[in-house]
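User: Structure with nicotinamide-adenine-dinucleotide, tokens only please.
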Amino acid sequence: MSGSPAPVQGSSEVDPRKSVRERVFVVGAGIMGSGIAAEAALHGYAVTLEDITEEFARAGLERVRQALDGAVRAKAITPADRDAALRNIDLAIGLRRIDAAQIVVEAAPERLELKQSLFREIEASAPGTALLATNTSSLPVTSIASVVQDPGRVVGIHFFNPVLRMRLVEIIPGISTRPEAVAKARTFAERLGKSVVVSRDTPGFVTTRALSVLLNEAAWMLYEGTATKEDIDTAYKLGFNHPMGPLELADLVGLDTALSILDVLWDGFKDPKYRACPILRSLVQAGKLGRKTGEGFYRYPSAEEKPPR
Ligand SMILES: NC(=O)c1ccc[n+]([C@@H]2O[C@H](COP(=O)([O-])OP(=O)(O)OC[C@H]3O[C@@H](n4cnc5c(N)ncnc54)[C@H](O)[C@@H]3O)[C@@H](O)[C@H]2O)c1
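Assistant:
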């Protein structure tokens, strides 16, 4: 991404280099990056939301708008809060303007080589004092950090989807992460109103490991014809008071992400309980990645459509 085109003007006219507030630079304007940007902007941080193309960055900003509009409709924030948050965000293509950031949160796709290559670039361009965080949900933070010169600055800050509604953040120190980086990550998460749990850097940490088995088991039941997808989801919702069924949730997470995570758990533990259900692999091969592509286990004709009930 070096040598990328000029920065895109988003909703803010502020030159990030002149900002006195802490600036959060979010790498990857997808589902999670846009949610993290929305939450940070809502809590007064100056935010740069970055992606590899202008189209993707603008789509990320649109997702931010939709999330904030949803929070206004739910009366969680006022229209004035939403407007102030939008003014706190600008967009970028590539990492050129990362030199103004105090906190970098990487939310690019869940692929180790991609994240390693990004962290090399991030370390080379971000200020030496900036916290370097990854939102990985399963990859070893230690492996991501292993390619940079100072892995002590790198920490996992694992947000949940949808970021504005989910109260938990899981912090994952890699083997070399310094306590100051963990403390800074905790302060950042708590300023966003999140509760923090700390997990050792083992595959899937606490939450992803637990969730992946649940989603995969539901997919296996569908594969084996145990019940229809609707009945599987209804069973979890009404039987266990889960707010969403596991197949709906897999669609929300993104089936490509869910599959990559299961593969990471399989590689990390070599335990057959993490063997991804073939249905999941087929849907990903077919480009049916869930809500973000309009079809996964369910079909979503429009972005506005509510999950199946
Ligand atoms: N989806 C979830 O529910 C969820 C929850 C917690 C954590 N995570 C983690 O968050 C990360 C992002 O997941 P997501 O669901 O937002 O993915 P996503 O596919 O929605 O978004 C990824 C974004 O990164 C962009 N991107 C790709 N290569 C890039 C690069 N080199 N530089 C900058 N941007 C790049 C893509 O264009 C895309 O906009 C992953 O590590 C995932 O495991 C996801």
